[in-house]
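Course assignment 3, question 2. Fill in each field.
Student: A.L.
Task: Predict the tertiary structure for the chain below.
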Amino acid sequence: MAKRDEIECWLTDMDGVLVHENQPLPGAAQLLQQWRDQGKPFLVLTNNSIFTPRDLSARLKASGLDVPEEFLWTSALATADFLASQSPGGSAFVIGEAGITTALHEAGFVMTDTSPEYVVVGETRNYSFEAITRAIRLILAGARFIVTNPDATGPSAEGPLPATGAVAALISKATGKEPYVVGKPNPMMFRSAMNKIGAHSENTGMIGDRMDTDIVAGIEAGLHTILVLTGISDQAEIDRYPFRPDEILGGVIDLVDAEPFTVGIDDDLMPEEPLV
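Answer field:
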């Protein structure tokens, strides 16, 4: 397993690591700039499949973080990448928003409700009883069941919202069929992200805030794992699991290289050796 100073490529979760409630977390902007300055390939990952990378880039920019769309990797992109490898030019009935439908279109898939190869369920705030019923009938007729991510709930200002995993459970109960889930904690999402940036597991680091998705998937993918405590995890949460990350940090600010330390503005007063 690589040590931190041997890491050449980085994957990082977004919510709870770089941003919290649309506000950048301390050190996030500096760390992203540091990776750019050092020429280290990186991707920002999210299990959210609602938004396209362009949408997410704009939302992050409004939060104060400059993350161009080519540096974003969503569960929708990972799902489209997986399905394109399984069935090039295939067909799917999709429950979801622009994030998953755009990704599948760009991967060469056809959207149809007539004998599709796949039923794909992603995140949406507008679940339709008719669409869920159609998905159930198509799966019972032989369509393969794919889910972008397993998250049962999502956050909102008013409290938790039912998310992809909850709707997938409803469909599973009605069909007796379990879906193949592409997003975290499936390490396939990390592997597809690494393929995108030409990274290898032995020199790639993963930063996350969740033991049950980010860290376990990072371990299974063979990555150097870093848990930050700016999201949902604390020591009690860490102690619940039989595995451990390689590092536990207060936040991404702890990954930002310290600036050279200087005193005053008069060169004559500067020490000959750098202060440490």
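Instructor remarks: The longest strand covers residues 9-13. The chain is about 35% helix and 20% strand.
Grade: pending
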